[in-house]
Specification:
TIM Barrel, about 325 residues, single chain, Helicase, Ruva Protein, domain 3
Length: about 325
């Protein structure tokens, strides 16, 4: 089993995409000796996503990736890329040149066909390519297998189940992980969010069901209520199997995050539970709180309506429109 560290990418959501080059260097220097398999770096929404719609990055992709590349020798450098935000020529090709080794190409769980061009290009470059199925609670097991099969056909060597809304319970994770392993016969990974306080339990259930890539973030730093706490996942895993990760070094990484960003550390709140129950992307929490307050709506009412309309990541601009509709109703 490998640990995949998303602190410097998903954690950038919690930092409003203001992650600094200096912090990337400090964190990667620690991570390089920790035994994590890969460190994912970049804007919260991945390569090419910096914009006024989803958040402007304080540093360019190139600056952050270069800082990480110069600080990593043992640990792989990875990125997250969503077709539509990331293009082959503008974003993927430069990342290959910068020495990125692992590319996670992510689509909404039912839209894997959008990834074909990106995955095939990276396969031709002999990069390691994983297919990421975001908002994976929004289809059944059969639909999950269908999308994962498309990713495998394009050349992806692993499929990552992303619980973007923190909607899953352990039994949901186990069922999906086993189904993908049995049907596709390739590596499966799991990416948890902590809306119900189940992120670590779900990550451990995925590992028990055969997942070989487990995502985590130091101190859980991530969108909304955060990710599975990397240090907790490593500690729990070490009780059952010998891993390559050094708990002492992983704890040093979490202490670095805690010391640098004490006010941004995620927590499970009423809003995160509402988000998870509605099945809406965790990263919308700041916008939902702000717009609900502006219009005098309850956040629960707004989350429920976003869920009814099946809002997915990247549709931030619709939150205000939906709030206006609720006011008119």
């Amino acid at each position: 089993m490998h640990f995949y560290d998303v602190t410097l990418r998903d954690g950038n959501h919690a930092l409003r995409h203001q992650l600094s080059e200096t912090f990337v260097r400090s964190y990667c220097s620690l991570a390089d000796d920790a035994g994590v398999w890969a460190v994912e770096v970049g804007h919260g929404n991945g390569l090419g996503a910096s914009s006024f719609l989803v958040g402007k990055s304080s540093q360019s992709d190139e600056v952050l990736l270069q800082a990480a590349r110069e600080s990593l020798s043992n640990t792989k450098l990875a990125v997250h890329a969503i077709p539509g935000f990331a293009t082959v020529k503008r974003d993927l090709a430069p990342a290959v040149s910068l020495g990125v080794e692992v590319f996670r190409i992510a689509t909404h769980v039912t839209e894997a066909t959008l990834a074909q061009k990106h995955v095939e290009y990276l396969t031709e470059q002999e990069a390691t390519v994983h297919g990421v199925l975001m908002m994976s609670h929004m289809t059944d097991v059969r639909g999950l297998i269908k999308s994962a099969t498309q990713f495998k056909k394009y050349g992806a060597t692993a499929i990552i189940i992303m619980d973007s809304a923190g909607n899953f319970l352990p039994r949901d994770v186990a069922e999906r992980t086993r189904a993908l392993r049995e049907e596709l016969g390739i590596d499966v990974g799991f990416h948890a969010h902590n809306n119900f306080g189940m992120a670590v339990a779900n990550a451990m259930e995925a590992a028990s069901a055969g997942a070989s890539l487990i995502d985590g973030a130091s101190m859980g730093l991530g969108a909304g209520s955060g990710n599975a706490q990397l240090e907790c996942v490593v500690a729990a895993s070490n009780r059952h199997v010998h891993s390559h990760a050094s708990l002492d070094q992983v704890l040093a990484m979490s202490q670095l995050v805690e010391g640098a960003y004490p006010e941004q550390l995620p927590r499970t709140s009423a809003s995160s539970v509402e988000s998870g129950e509605a099945g809406v992307f965790s990263g919308y929490a700041p916008q939902v709180a702000s717009i609900a307050n502006e219009f005098g709506l309850s956040s629960q009412e707004l989350w429920r309506e976003l869920g009814r309309r099946k809002l997915v990541a990247g549709q931030e601009s619709m939150i205000r429109e939906i709030a206006l509709d609720l006011m008119n109703l």
